[in-house]
Design a protein that fits this description.
By secondary structure, the chain is an alpha/beta fold. It has ten helices and 14 strands. 36% of the residues lie in helices and 25% in strands. The protein is globular. The structure holds nicotinamide-adenine-dinucleotide and (3R,4R)-3,4-dihydroxy-4-(hydroxymethyl)oxolan-2-one (89Y). Residues 129-251 form the GFO/IDH/MocA-like oxidoreductase domain. GO terms for molecular function: nucleotide binding.
Length: 339
């Protein structure tokens, strides 16, 4: 399968490494408006076909799919362009800045009869996937409570400066993953309410968010995220879980330690991510999940099935992001279907 990468920035390098891990997939062309970034990725991964304009790349190259690794404001135009060329699409999170854009993008690829997957990779992290699998397998019975927590003081702004200047920050950038993981474990959401704060005075958006979710099943979740938490040991980029089920409990603690307690006893499992040769700590957890989700995309294309984080599925995660901002702004409880 031949792919074209659009966006050669901070995160794309992980995606390029990830594709190299997958047999039968090759990124044969790359695109970025920024010449220096295009050269850097092109030279590093030995890709000769380089474009500063995505429309030119898609007109000139024979591709099966595009991998969109640009920031959110460009996603809709690029996804619709790819759909017009009849290509399968994998697009980075956050899918769009509005539900209207996200729905239009999803419809464009569906109308073209192609596969649309959002690069929503946290649910493919080793520890989170082990927790999802355990709950889905009924290891703790029906879950009635989940706390999904991401609290850190790690400097994400140096690698991704737009995180300090965008109007929206932690929910759209990071909370989106934690909300997605919570959906994967606890099911769909019927209502939510959110409180947001900006603790770091040097940034524009919110760096702390606390979100209360009521699920269709009747269960409750708390999603709490912070980039203003000064603590040792620093746990970036780990999402921690506390899940209570009718017959047991599951805890995903710092250091990739998964504990499942039931009447039958206690299981403690090391769910550490593998460290690819191209990866570096502490990012290796995220980097492994990039390779895993891209492998999932390739398998879905080969087998003609819908990916777990398809456009359709991701609309429901994005509605939680939008809902959290609405709830915080209007100080009220939101139903995702309002959005
Ligand atoms: P970045 O700004 O470093 O890189 C984006 C690149 O896209 C830039 O080089 C820019 O010139 C290029 N670009 C923008 N619009 C373009 C267009 N229309 N045509 C061609 N090139 C264009 O951003 P980043 O930090 O690499 O983030 C990219 C995306 O990845 C974001 O949506 C971000 O949220 C996401 N991300 C995901 C994860 C994850 O774990 N899933 C982690 C980090 C970032
Ligand atoms: O952009 C974010 C993401 O998706 O994962 C971590 C991150 O890089 C910073 O919050």
């Amino acid at each position: 399968m031949k792919g074209g990468l659009i966006g050669c920035g901070f995160f794309a390098v992980n995606q390029m490494h990830g594709w190299q891990e997958i047999e039968g997939v090759e990124i044969v062309a790359i695109c970025d408006r920024d010449r220096a970034r295009l050269t850097e990725i092109g030279d590093k991964f030995d890709v000769d076909a380089r474009y500063s304009d995505a429309a030119e790349m898609l007109a000139a190259e024979k591709l099966d799919f595009v991998d969109i690794a640009t920031t959110v404001e460009s996603h809709r135009a690029l996804v619709e362009l790819a759909a017009r060329h009849g290509l399968h699409v994998i697009c980075q999170k956050p899918l769009a800045e509005t539900m209207e854009d996200a729905r239009a993008m999803n419809a464009a690829v569906a109308d073209a009869g192609r596969v649309f997957m959002v690069h929503e990779n946290f649910r493919w992290q080793s520890g989170l996937r082990a927790a999802i699998d355990a709950v889905r397998a009924g290891k703790i019975g029906e879950p009635f409570f989940c706390r999904a927590s991401f609290r850190s003081g790690y400097d994400v702004y140096s690698g991704q400066p737009y995180l300090a200047t965008d109007e929206r920050f932690i929910i759209q950038d990071l909370g989106i993953h934690v909300l997605d993981v919570t959906r994967a474990i606890m099911g769909e959401v019927s209502t939510l309410s959110a409180s947001i704060q900006r603790v770091n005075p040097k940034i524009r958006g919110e760096d702390v968010a606390t979100i209360l979710l009521k699920h269709d099943s009747g269960a409750t979740s708390v999603v709490d995220c912070s980039y203003a938490t000064r603590q040792q040991p620093e746990t970036f980029p780990e999402t921690l879980l506390e899940i209570d089920g009718e017959t047991g409990t599951l805890r995903l603690d710092a250091g990739y330690r998964l504990t499942i307690q039931t009447a039958g006893g206690e299981d403690v499992i090391d769910v550490s991510p593998r460290l690819y040769p191209w990866a570096e700590k502490p990012w290796h957890n995220i980097q492994e999940s990039v390779a895993t989700i891209q492998r999932h995309f390739a398998e879905c294309l080969r087998q003609g099935r819908s990916p777990e984080t398809s456009g359709d599925d991701n609309l429901r995660t994005l509605a939680l992001v939008e809902g959290a901002y609405f709830s915080a702004a209007e100080a009220r409880t939101i139903k995702p279907e309002e959005l």
